[in-house]
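Tutorial sheet, problem 5. The two components below are modelled jointly, 953 residues in total.
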Amino acid sequence: MENTIKQYTAKDFKSDQYVRWCPGCGDYALLNTLQKVMAELGVDPKDVATVSGIGCSSRLPYYTSGYGFHTIHGRGAAVATGVKVANPRLTVWQITGDGDCLAIGGNHFIHSVRRNVDINVLLFNNQIYGLTKGQFSPTTKKGFITKSSPFGTVERPFRPAELTIGARGTFFGRVLDVDLKSSHATMMAAAAHKGTSVIECLVNCVIFNDGAHSWLSEKETRYDRIIILEHGKPMIFGKNSDKGLVADGFNLKVVTLGENGITEADLLVHDAKCEDFTLQMKLALMEGPEFPVAIGVIRSVEADTYDAETESQIAEVQSKSKIKTFDELIDSCEQWEM
Amino acid sequence: MSTTNKTEAENVVIRFTGDSGDGMQLTGTLFSNLSAILGNEISTFPDFPSEIRAPQGTLGGVSGFQVNLGASKIYTPGDDADVMIAMNPAALKVNANGIKKNGVLIIDTDSFQKSDLDKAGFTTDNPFEELKLSDTIQIIPAALTSLTVAALEGSGLDNKSILRSKNMFALGLVCWLFNRPIDQAIHFLQNKFSKKQTILEANIKVLTDGFNYGHNLHLAVSTYLVDKSHEVPKGRYTSINGNKATAWGLIAAAQKAGLQLFLGSYPITPATDIMQELANRKDMGVKVVQAEDEIAGITTALGASFAGSLAATNTSGPGLALKSEAIGLAVMAELPIVIVDVMRGGPSTGLPTKTEQTDLLQALYGRNGESPAVVIAANTPDDCFHYAYMSAKIALEHMTPVILLTDSYIGNGSSLWKLPKLAELPAITPNFVKPGMEGIKVTSRDPETLARYWAIPGMEGFNQRNGGLEKDFTTGAISTDPLNHQKMVDTRQAKINYISNVIPQLELEGDKSADTLVISWGSTHGHLMTAVNNLVKAGEKVALAHFSYIHPLPKNTEEVIKRYKKVLVCELNSGQFATYLRSKVPGEYKQFNKVQGQPFNVAELEEAIQLIIKN
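Model answer (structure tokens):
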């Protein structure tokens, strides 16, 4: 029997445009992964809308097939909300950066997360403004020297996980540009999640902030410094899968399997679906060198989505109302003959 | 039996004034609607304070509602009142200049005690003398408060609710004064308070007592008879305010175009009613996103436009400022969207509840880059429907943002509206891509109108990328080529200019053979037309050209203006339309301007126009 579901390849999701990011930019790997994910999801390119704001990463819609909208600085979340609410049948991806999403677009970001509109947000975090050539962003580490902070920044950075979960986010994941397998799995999970799925993508800007994530990225030590979380699996990490996380009072602690009688059974098991975000937040905020940085789906809980609620409210009101057309609306108003 | 005389009048102006808690807006609305049902022309002007709640009885808290009832065509809520109801001394003081010589003033004597006079800043115990009204007006003193309390004795209502009913006593009294049966008012109250039986009964009782009070007291004033209007075309009518008419115009356009209506909006005085009306129309499938700010109001709408909806956003001046970057995106991406600006006093927060025409240049030019958009202005509360509909039609057919300017005066004011049928309205054909065009570029456009073809997500064969960067005219790819940019800038302007072919030509009113031409635009039409008609009747020679289409201008604009020796532009700003006209049709324009948060009055216009005619 013929398979009626069309199979797509990543190529079906590439546009005819030449990709213009700097050689070595972390965005390339994420674009490739996204195109593979889009193909695997099996959604026709014509039913995919990719929306962005302004910044290096926001050029991404030009490089995907389907329908793309490169909008204005910071407003991608609001535009994407409009696209999805207007036509919930579309698969909507929002591409944004740490400046676009968390500085100028901060308000739209927290409100799209709060409303839980069913969109997938890729937040490219390189901790710098790249397109304007090297100013600090809301995620730049305190004290960091940039062109606009020649003596180091004096401000505290946002941590995207805190902001997302604080805005009642239902999905938060994190990926590292160079780690393709976990990026792929996390994007697939984000697409499957109903609601605003936020993925913080740790990307390297080779020109203005090279090596911002190199402590994590280096091949030799990468798996000692990140932990790839999977729902329902014990929290094991390390090149030799010999390290893990346990609870230590209200804190987390890194342990080595086999030392002091520690076995896999002693380790915490990741529960991304837990409504209470206490442990998820602790995991999301782990930093080196004491802790590994969490990668993968950190939180994924169910809640009503704004777009579906809008549709069902309209359907409910329509089922009860006698007014269906403009002429009926006119007939319904207080009126008299003159 | 009442023995009072009855005066027949062509039109009568009534102003209800009181504290913002006195229910003057409701009283005025009920009286206007019941008069309209009895066959009168109406034009209303609600004028309320922007204070959250000023201290009771003070000047800052005075709320007013003026209505002009006509037995023939009327175009304005009138200048000064024939009959004024002042519920307290503050209301009297604020409105003292607005009562005609020999006008009738109804006051609530219970609220004219020493402490009330003090609160309103009167220094003597005779406010009428202090305001120099004693010799010129007839006063009907009525103890509205105590009569209301007496009417509701034993009703079981609490004191606060009893006092709040005194506006119904005033309404009853006014119904008597205008020979209006109160049945219709009772019918309205039944609709309004259908779920609050006690309040309903109390209101009806007080209303009836108010009517009987006038009837039984043999008051020595003449009552008014305003006959049914004989100039209204036959048909079904309702009374509608401009904000509701705007909302309904968008609803009608969406159905005519076969599209879903989407409004992205953020609450702002005096535009919020449009959002509220549309939020209530889920039965018609209208989607309303109350966004986190003005910017998200328009950008959610632009997202919906990108996805294929009839998209709109509504706001007032400060909100328009915030939306300007996104309007530029709509210009660049050539997406249809209607931006309704219900103008109010500015700049900044300005006078939120008052009316002005001061956003014109912002609408025309308030964006970065060469960023032409269509600008249209509605003239009356009821024609907000027509212009909202036409704004949507032009946006969808010409792929452009359209800014519709209304204002607080027509947004909140009401007029009679002849109910339309959808079939009577002009067709709307969005400029969608057509079968056979598959593979065309995002910048492909109709060769005649230059409107870009609209492809929406979900359409097979038209996948494309749009955005705010300049695009190549032919390939649609992003481009910084100098000559291409010039071509795109010129094309976007030419696309807007083309629209002058589809909008109506300018039509002159008044005496076309005059030397003097008066020019107006938007909501001042009624006042200008009345002033010009009065002057022509009085033997003066003057013509009126009124603009609703601002950008582009009607095709015959230059030809019309050049016919006249003297041109006077009247507008509620410091000369914005005059400035615009000077750039489009160079010549000498005299100006008459007023920026007081209030509409023109006819008398001041007549005076200004006469001065031009004579000099």
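Marking note: The CA atoms of residues 157 and 372 of chain B lie 59 Å apart. Full credit if you identified this.
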